[in-house]
Amino acid sequence: MAEVVLNQVVKTYGNVYAVNHVSLTVADGEFVALVGPSGCGKTTTLNLIAGLIEMSGGDIHIGDRLVNDLDPKDRDIAMVFQNYALYPNKTVFKNLAFPLQMRKLSKSDIEAKVLSAAKVLDITHLLERKPRELSGGQQQRVALGRALVRDPRVFLMDEPLSNLDAKLRVQMRTELKRFHQDLQATVVYVTHDQLEAVTMADKMAVMNGGFLQQYDSPKNVFDNPVNMFVASFVGSPAMSLVPLEVVTHGTDVALRSPEGWQLPLSAANARKALTSTTAKVVLGARHSTVKLHTTQTPGTVPGVIYTVEPTGDITFVQVFLGASVVIVSLDPSVIVEPDQKVWIEFDQDKIHLFDGATEMALA
Ligand code: ATP
C-alpha cells in the first residue's frame, strides 16, 4: 500500500473551481472519507487522484511517485464505483479474472489471486454465477473483489454503497470496515452519507465549494469544528446555531439576543467571545448538550416549542429562541407539546462560539 499526497491541487472548469488548492495527505493504510454537500468537489478530487481527469494545477504523489502525468492504468490504483460496472455475461470468476488476464498473468497465478480474493470477501460459493444471479450486496462484493485482485497501492471508492437498500448498506459498511482492517489498505472514499464516513474512516476531509474545510478524525471534526459550515454539516441533527451579540457589564460578559434575553458566559467562554472580530458571535450547541426546562430556572433562556419528533428511543424537539431554532433531545417519556413555552439551558462547557463575521470557531 502507499500514501497519497495532494499538494495545492486545483481543477477548474471555465470560471468554476471544482477543486480549489486542496492539500492533504492520506497516510499509508489510512481510510479517508471525502464528504461535503452536492457539488463540493468530492468526486472531482477522487477522479484527479485516479487520473481520470486532468489537473489544472498542483501535484499528486502516490507512494514515492509523482503521478501528475501518469495514465490511470499506471497509477496502481483500483476504483470501486456505485454502479459496480460488472460484466453481465461473465461469471463472477471471469469478472475477477479479467483485469489479471489483461495484465497477461499466468493461468495458475490468476486462479490463485481470484480464489484468495473470493475467500477474503466470502464469495467463493458464487464464482460460477453471473452478476444477474446475485443480490446487490453480493454484486458489490464482487466489485470489491475485482479491485482487490489487482493488488493496488490505493483503493478509490465513489459512493460504493449508494445503490444498496438501507439494511444492506449498514451490513456492507461493517464489511468494508473489516476489509480495511484486515488488509490495512489505503482507501479514499467519497460519500454523501456522513454516518458512513464517521463509522468507517480514520479521517474525514470535509469539503465545501471546492475548498477543504477541515481534515481530521471524525471525533475531532465533530467535537471541534473549525467553522460554522463544518459545525452545521457534520452531525445529525445538525448543531443548532444562534446568532447573538457580545455585551459586557464591567468584567462580566454575556450574550444578548435580539429579543433582549442575556446569557452570562463562563470565564473561558467570555475570553473566547471577546476575541470575535466584531460584537457578533454565533453560539453553537449539539442537541445532546442542551437541556429543556418547563419552568423558568436561573441560567436558562426562554423559547417556544415548534415541533416534537419522536424517533423511537429519542425524541427531538425544535425550540424557537426568537428567530433561531435550537434542537433538544429528550427521553421519549418526557411529554411536551408544540407552542409550549419552555426554557433552554446550555452547557457552558460544551457550547461552541463562532465569530459572527468570519464564521470561524473562536478558540
Ligand atoms: P455530488 O455529491 O453531487 O456527486 P461532488 O461533491 O462529487 O458532488 P463534483 O462532481 O466533484 O461534486 O463537482 C464539483 C463542481 O464541479 C460542481 O460545481 C460541478 O458542477 C462542477 N463540475 C464537475 N464536473 C464538471 C464538468 N465536466 N464540467 C463542468 N463542471 C463540472
TrEMBL record:
Question: What region holds the ABC transporter domain?
Answer: 4-234
- List keywords of the entry alphabetically: ATP-binding, Nucleotide-binding, Transport
CDD domains noted in UniProt: ABC_MalK_N
Molecular function terms from GO: ATP binding
> Record's InterPro entries?
AAA+_ATPase, ABC_transporter-like_ATP-bd, ABC_transporter-like_CS, ABC_transpr_MalK-like, ABC_transpr_MalK/UgpC-like, Mo/tungstate-bd_C_term_dom, NA-bd_OB-fold, P-loop_NTPase
* Record-given protein name: ABC transporter ATP-binding protein
Pfam families with a match to the protein in the record: ABC_tran, TOBE
Per the record, the domain of life is Bacteria
Q: Which family does it belong to?
A: Belongs to the ABC transporter superfamily.
